Amino acid sequence: MYQCQATRSTRAAQQAVQLILEDSKPVLQYRFIEQTIQPGPSVSLKCSAVANPTPSITWMLDGLPIPQSDRVVVGVQEGNRGEVVGHVNISHTRVEDGGRYQCTASNVAGSVYHRANLNIYGLPVGRPMATVTAVAGQTLELSCPVAGYPFHTFIWNKDGETIDESLGQRIEVDGTLVLEKVRHSFDAGVYTCTASTKQGRAATGSAQVSVLVPPRIDPFSFNDGLTEGMRTQVICGVSQGDPPLTIEWLKDGRPLSLNGPLNVQARVFDGFSSVLAVSSLTAGHSGRYTCQVRNEAAVESYTATLTVSAPPAWVLEPRDSQVIRGQSLVVDCAARGYPEPSVTWKKKVGSGSDAFRSTELVRPRAEQLSNGSLYIARAEPEHTGTYVCHASNAVNHLSSTINISVNSAPYFLGGTSSEEVRAGETAVLECRVKGDTPLTLNWTFRGAPLHSTSRYIENEKVDPDGSLVGKIEILSASQTDAGDYTCTAHNDFGRNSRTITLSVHDNFSRFRFLRGYIVLVLKDFEYNVYLTHV
What we know:
By secondary structure, this protein is mainly β.
């Protein structure tokens, strides 16, 4: 389970997601090879596999479990890279240790195997009577139960009669007897193999073959048109298969016994059938239901899909929201139902039937996230308004209308950061500010509060665009009036300031260079200039 948490001042939000690794069939990463040796030396056979869940590894010799002893050790260990390593260690090998070895890696997702011969030179030696279980309808391979190497001929008998290769039975070059599509009564019995060398030395071994019938499940399906509150049931019937049978139900690949949905019951009748019943359907019951039947021969399953139509219902219903200008905003809107509801956001932009338009088409733009939430990356006053979240599927629809308010601390529009006047003139300083009302403006000069006097005149007005314009007029400005004037605006959501620097020039304070001369402009003689050569 992965969890993400986001916090901002006194608010927090979190979201969790569960990562489930699907089952995977084993893959063999290392396989042992065929060997031909003389009796005596030690031998180690290994194979390794990876899978999820972790696979188990089993070993067989000529199709039978390997009998362990103080010389023959079968084991499993975990490798350095997470793989499972299986091994067979044989010390002081003997002729009877030879044969076809098979390593099988298996888990719930499947199995994979590898075979190779360990040939040990020696005269034929018959193995003890073995019992082999075959599955009806599948292929059975019987290795000749005789140890030794090399062999020249193999002769197979069933219940004392020679094998007829025309009846779906054949003998491979290495002496393996292959039975195609095993039949329950026809292929069961005692099989005997006689292996001979070129020198005429021979030995015989036998195997008792029993045939089991795997389960066969009759197809079943759920009714169409099921809605919430209704009842339903299906029967999983097993028309074929040797007892005892184990019947289990799964939903979406997981056993119902492990936190399955409520109001679901599974009952087994007469050992050959099971009824799955749901007393009151909800959308949460929708899914794939599997009847899994197991006996000694095989595991079979049949799956049917249950669809419960349900109208949308709120999981996270949107609510009225406020946001500060310039900050981001997320408004949740999530609904459940079946089929899964689609979610759309619209904003009110007018009146009548076309009053609402998609938020993707309205400026400034608000984005709808993949989970249905409305996202505003940078809130502006124009985002203020009425919004509706609409959730719908084939069954029904629902909607929720909310208001979004964008609160704004004061912010200034345009204006300059400096002003210049000549001594004796009237200086006019202006600041234009917008933000949530009520707005308050204050002026300071060189850090000290500034109030209206006979020379300092303050006034305010509200322009048609809603901005508050504050002005201060300084009559008959002098050098003592030069400096920094700060206009400070504040409301319930913050404060902001702008500083304007006033420069007051005396009679000779305005000059410029012109072709090597300094041009001085006198206050009282604007049209008469004196030129001084530089």
